[in-house]
Backbone:
């Protein structure tokens, strides 16, 4: 510390006094024009210093004391070389940590503020994404409050007809826990959030299909020229295709079949116009707003062998494209109920459909969180939360003798996907296509990625192996990849389409789906469908009619005639049962439902197509059918009728519906359907 000498201080004071006197001697009204300050620091300004105040190499550092506290401020506080760079002494207060319940209250209030903010009053998409951001915060900070937040928002925005429905659908024991997981992991402020707001709430535009980089995806380029096609054997196999059983073990004969809330034909539902008296008693064999009672399932199982001529021989093999359980509210599902339903249906298949294998795939209803199947990459316990399903269903396929043990072992740890190589040269590849289902909320996590589950990598590798060994392939799944595009996500089905292009028509013979309950199909073309003509048509996906009559359709099944060497379909035969006749069967046991032959695809659509008797109903043939539809719209009406299995409830297809149906048939992926087709004409269920 540098302290001034008293005599030096006195001299300076005297000098300053003289200057003041000289200035005062002048004219009081005059102002000086210039003044040169002395070069030395006026050391009398402070009593003491930490350094020499007369030095010219550094700024003066006076010793300063606080007259209030009498504390002297330390030198380091202003030392140019060593002053504090980070204040860790003084308090920098934060608000108190909110409790879990306070976070919930805050989130609800913030979302209400978002949707009433005049700055974004006309931008419901921005409101939705901002609200998801708030929900994400709750999911991360207080996940136990996620279901309650979902219930509160359901009630506030009136997403359901009654508050009790919001409670039952979004509580933790139904879909609320899943919603919380999705909010936690999804990029809700980006593509994922926009897709959620588009598909689930219809307040955003559907985001564009993400650019697809196929660099390195395929091990080999598509052969050019293609290998010579396999020659037909002339021998025909009979292959059964059943789908969407939706058995309802809780079906109550006589309960309300015209209820106001899902699921009808249950004792716990009613019609709001007549809550105390049943308006339409549930028939013993089923109704249009109900799922399949056991009596209807046994009826169709008895009818199939008799109508297909397989009572003695059985089928060569069969396909089941998923959906075993009924359309229960989520809170009424349980693991035990799913497993019970699986056992009943598979045992019925085994008992009535013969000893040949039934190649099955999972449906979106075949889990106690309907539609939900998480990716293994989500991490922790969440990645294995549905393993019980894959393990149980795979074990059932082994138990029934439909798949060998090494195949089921793979399926147990790969979302129940598998490939089986038959001895006749056909390879069956089963995919859990629920992974790209728009109502599988886990499909909104990393939605820009075309294969977040790795299942399309598995498919591509299997197809490459099949190409190398000369096998033909059938692909089976549940949720379709195209048609109107409303069922599947954009990016996975876009990649799937490119895979089909790469391996068709020389490897992939056919693709099979279910899910819609309706009789439909889609065509895949070369080069992502840029030119849709007979020459570029590559593959067909067959979408099977359902056994369940839900909703407003008849019950049905299909049998294919298949060449035993090419595994091309030579003809398709469909049967149906008129559900509107079921009430007449009550009160007696002599007669059950009647299944009648509905149509042959070759006869129904091929009258004006020049085609050999043994030529397959392949993509080329089906494209020619669509060209005939453009010429003769009655063919579209025929297709529309068969779509609902000739249900009395099916409305006619007129006006814009006609080109829309043709467009759906030509759309093998969601992105192609969105790009080309009018919306709103995809279903006949009303």
Residues:
């Amino acid at each position: 510390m540098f302290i001034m000498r008293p005599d030096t201080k006195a001299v300076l004071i005297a000098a300053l006094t003289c200057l003041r006197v000289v200035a005062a001697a002048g004219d009081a009204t005059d102002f000086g024009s210039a003044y040169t300050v002395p070069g030395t620091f006026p050391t009398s300004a402070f009593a003491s210093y930490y350094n020499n105040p007369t030095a010219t190499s550094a700024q003066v550092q006076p010793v300063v004391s606080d007259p209030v506290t009498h504390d002297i401020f330390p030198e380091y506080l202003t030392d140019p070389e060593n002053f504090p760079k980070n204040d860790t002494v003084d308090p920098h207060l934060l608000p108190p940590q909110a409790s879990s319940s306070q976070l919930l209250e805050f989130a609800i209030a913030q979302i209400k503020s978002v949707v009433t903010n005049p700055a974004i009053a006309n931008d419901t998409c921005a409101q939705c994404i901002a609200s998801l951001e708030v929900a994400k915060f709750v999911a991360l900070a207080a996940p136990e409050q996620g279901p309650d937040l979902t219930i509160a928002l359901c009630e506030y925005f009136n997403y359901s007809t009654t508050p009790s429905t919001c409670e039952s659908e979004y509580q933790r024991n139904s879909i609320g826990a899943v919603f919380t997981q999705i909010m936690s992991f999804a990029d809700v402020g980006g593509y994922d959030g926009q897709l959620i707001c588009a598909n689930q709430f219809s307040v955003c535009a559907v985001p564009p299909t993400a650019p697809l980089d196929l660099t390195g995806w395929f091990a080999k380029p598509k052969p050019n020229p293609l290998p010579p096609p396999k020659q037909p054997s002339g021998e025909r196999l009979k292959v059964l295709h059943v789908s969407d059983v939706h058995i309802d073990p809780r079906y109550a004969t006589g309960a309300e079949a015209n209820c106001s809330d899902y699921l009808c034909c249950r004792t716990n539902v009613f019609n709001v116009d007549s809550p105390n008296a049943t308006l339409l008693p549930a028939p013993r064999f089923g109704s249009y707003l109900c799922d399949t009672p056991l009596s209807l399932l046994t009826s169709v199982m008895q009818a199939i062998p008799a109508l297909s001529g397989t009572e003695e021989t059985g089928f060569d093999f069969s396909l089941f494209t998923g959906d075993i359980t009924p359309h229960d509210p989520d809170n009424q599902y349980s693991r035990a109920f799913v497993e019970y339903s699986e056992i009943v249906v598979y045992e019925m298949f085994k008992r009535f459909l013969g000893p040949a294998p039934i190649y099955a795939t999972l449906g979106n209803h075949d889990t106690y969180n309907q539609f939900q199947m998480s990716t293994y990459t989500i991490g922790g316990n969440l990645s294995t939360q549905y393993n019980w399903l894959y393990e149980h269903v795979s074990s059932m396929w082994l138990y029934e003798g439909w798949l060998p043990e090494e195949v089921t072992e793979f399926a147990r740890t790969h979302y129940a996907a598998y490939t089986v190589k038959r001895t006749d040269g056909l390879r069956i590849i089963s995919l859990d296509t629920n992974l790209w289902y728009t109502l599988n909320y886990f499909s909104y996590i990393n939605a820009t990625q075309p294969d977040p589950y790795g299942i399309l990598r598995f498919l591509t590798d299997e197809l490459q192996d099949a190409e190398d060994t000369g096998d033909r392939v059938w692909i089976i799944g549940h949720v379709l990849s195209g048609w109107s595009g409303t069922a599947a996500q954009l990016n996975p089905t876009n990649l799937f389409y490119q895979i089909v292009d790469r391996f068709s028509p020389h490897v992939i013979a056919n693709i099979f789906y279910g899910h819609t309950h309706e009789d439909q199909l889609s065509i895949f073309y070369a080069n992502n469908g840029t030119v849709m003509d007979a020459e570029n048509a590559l593959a067909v996906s067959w979408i099977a009619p359902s056994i369940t009559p839900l909703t407003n359709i008849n019950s049905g099944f299909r049998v294919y005639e298949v060449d035993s060497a090419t595994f091309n379909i030579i003809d398709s035969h469909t049967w149906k049962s008129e559900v509107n006749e079921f009430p007449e069967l009550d009160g007696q046991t002599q007669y059950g439902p009647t299944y009648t032959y509905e149509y042959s695809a070759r006869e129904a659509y091929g009258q004006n197509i020049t085609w050999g008797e043994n030529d397959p109903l392949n993509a080329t043939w089906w494209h020619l059918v669509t060209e005939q539809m453009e010429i003769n719209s009655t063919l579209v009406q025929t297709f529309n009728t068969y779509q609902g299995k000739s249900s009395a409830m099916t409305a006619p297809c007129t006006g814009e519906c006609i080109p829309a149906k043709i467009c759906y048939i030509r759309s093998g992926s969601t992105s192609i359907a969105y790009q080309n087709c009018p919306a709103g004409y995809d279903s006949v269920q009303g």
